[in-house]
User: What shape does this take?
Amino acid sequence: MSQSQTPAPALDSTKLKELKEKLITACHILDHEGVTDGYGHVSVRVPGADAFITIANVSPGNVTSDRLIMQDLDGNYLGGAKTPPNEWPIHACILKARPDVMAVSHTHSKWSTIFSVLPVKLKPMHHYGKFLSADGPPVYQGIGLVRTVERGNDLAKALGDGPVVLMRAHGDAVVGASVEQVIERTTRLAMLGEWNHLALLHGQPRYLTDEELKVYNEDQRFPMRGWEYYVSRLKKRME
Amino acid sequence: MSQSQTPAPALDSTKLKELKEKLITACHILDHEGVTDGYGHVSVRVPGADAFITIANVSPGNVTSDRLIMQDLDGNYLGGAKTPPNEWPIHACILKARPDVMAVSHTHSKWSTIFSVLPVKLKPMHHYGKFLSADGPPVYQGIGLVRTVERGNDLAKALGDGPVVLMRAHGDAVVGASVEQVIERTTRLAMLGEWNHLALLHGQPRYLTDEELKVYNEDQRFPMRGWEYYVSRLKKRME
Amino acid sequence: MSQSQTPAPALDSTKLKELKEKLITACHILDHEGVTDGYGHVSVRVPGADAFITIANVSPGNVTSDRLIMQDLDGNYLGGAKTPPNEWPIHACILKARPDVMAVSHTHSKWSTIFSVLPVKLKPMHHYGKFLSADGPPVYQGIGLVRTVERGNDLAKALGDGPVVLMRAHGDAVVGASVEQVIERTTRLAMLGEWNHLALLHGQPRYLTDEELKVYNEDQRFPMRGWEYYVSRLKKRME
Amino acid sequence: MSQSQTPAPALDSTKLKELKEKLITACHILDHEGVTDGYGHVSVRVPGADAFITIANVSPGNVTSDRLIMQDLDGNYLGGAKTPPNEWPIHACILKARPDVMAVSHTHSKWSTIFSVLPVKLKPMHHYGKFLSADGPPVYQGIGLVRTVERGNDLAKALGDGPVVLMRAHGDAVVGASVEQVIERTTRLAMLGEWNHLALLHGQPRYLTDEELKVYNEDQRFPMRGWEYYVSRLKKRME
Assistant: This one.
């Protein structure tokens, strides 16, 4: 794969300015919506290159442009903040294994954590979950921070070609075709986790079947307003 | 019905100014109270005409006067923002079927969604639920967005002559004799959903019977302060 | 009782200024802490007189000095806002039956409502509940708003000589020796309701016995900081 | 132990300035994060002396530098606000029994209270709980405020050499090697309490074993960002 890629532009080049701003906004949204606390990170692939940008040892809610770092998919330093985040292999290994993925988030989401240690599964019961399969996301069982390429590859394997993998006693990793989609999915996953929890207390919920999910997924005019909405909430807070 | 109606005034006429402002406030309230997230809409019938005003492809919390649209009850464009909301038939079909209804809300309320996929029902257990019948609202089982008149009519049929219909894996539709009443009902429905959920975890709640609901409904001096209260909360936030 | 009392001073006399301000603060606290929504009221006895002050047809969170009303314990108008609140008999009848009581609150508290319709009881399981008896408050079963002296007397009877009565499908009434104590109790009751709810989901909680409650009640140096704390929270919001 | 210690510097000496500011910030964090309400306190050992600083009869969220008090480990007054907090023995007795401990918090945490009265235990199910043992913290069963050295010693005995002791019908005490660590642990404990509660409703959670906890504890590069993060949240509120 690497051969067909061009080298990444410099992290401070104007080509990457918009992408970096979007990444920072994405991190702030996850913090503001209560999905992340002091931990977690979002990454974005540098278009056309075997490289990605993420945040380095800072809480997502506090990230600023000088805390971004660029690495290649083997974890080599390409620019920005000097110290790579401990769990850079989450991003590098998933982006390497999944050329269709442009952005990855990793959070310690309360709801993902809870379903990661339970015998019951988190399944779509609202059309917000149409990006999931009817039987819900798999759970990565590994223990310890994902700080090696070996663990990163195990996690990518557990993710498979799906949108989400829960991580036992840890949280989740969510992927998407854009930063916006990853934020839409990460926030929806947390919402669905809560709704699954609530409904499961009253009996067997009527989940959406694969066929029913297909109806929603085939509807191309389905509005994707998560990004726009969460950006507006962030702005209202800062006013 | 159409024959006896006068044509709707222009959307920007002063006749509709107050109604439009009320509609915008209603949308902002549902967002501020956490009943809607990035989706959902409120509509209001244009008095004396076969037409209604709603919001076009914008989050309820972000709506401004230039994002309003006026349509007739068949969905024909009458003014305002160019693109009708995807689910305009929710409003058009209910307003056509129910001449007594002046306003409609559609939300993805967490609590409506949960009760829409469960074997247990959301029933009145506080006098805030006096607008419901003792056995609670029906559930529309249709899958897919309500983007056709056929589906809209199915939904209106499931609503019947009641105040509320839950929508499986989707949310709810609530109707009222005014924008204010729809907001009062929509917020109360969410509150009652939560309270039903909480109480049901501890055994069989003692619900209000139809006779007991009648006692509250016959009390004409019962104060309706929901609108006034929620408007004041909205203002406090914006101070 | 009435014979031994002096007439109430005028509602706008300087004698009542501080008491009125305290009453307004009390209402704002209940709103800010989420115990009341658009409904409910707090009342305070006029010292040495068969009279009380409460709020007239306004949400507790929105009350201002021109929305206060003074009535005697039979509900006769003594000054202030022209229209008595619908449920003035809650206050008048309790204050008449309980000379030891100086202030009363009535709320539609979520937690009181829930325990009002359940077979399980809300009991003290934290020393915050030391003002309750070990078997928790009784439930008034009456249906309909408490708008008559007959209903008010029934409610006062259900309260007995206790600090709290839950009201089925409606909320609660809480009494105290001062406005501050009523606020402390009303907020603690809501907190204990939530904690009872949570604990009960995991088995039989170990409640405090009457003897254990006595240990806390005999400790005269027990700090009562509820009022001071909630006032400070109110001020922080308004900064 | 006392013989080898030097006397404490004056409470208003510049040597203690930074420590006092940190203590105040710690209290404000616990209030802002909703772990404490009007009650509770944090204390810090005066480095190298048999003395500690805590807050005197004020809500943690309202503490200012003139409400700090310094005492020795027998409770003798050494400076600052005149009245010692009622429960000073919590701090004095634990600091005396545990020379490794530099800071102590005592809160009425909702989640600690709930698990203090239940047959089920609060156990680590996320790596945030790596400071706990696999079977979770013990529960001190004493009734009444901890206002005597005898009770303080009983509490210290129940704590043993662990990081946390729950206090029946009361809350918890948490210790650490620094103010920062105590805040990290106290906030994590509340978070884990909630997560335990949620997960336990759906069956037996898969907890972390002692061996798995060891994996996380041996990872010395594990980031401790709790303090930094909560300070930033406090600042955002005050902006």
Notes: The interface with chain A takes residues 37-39, 57-59, 61-62, 86, 108, 110, 113-114, 117-120, 143-145, 147, 168-170, 197, 200-201 of chain B (CB under 8 Å). The mean pLDDT of chain B is 95.
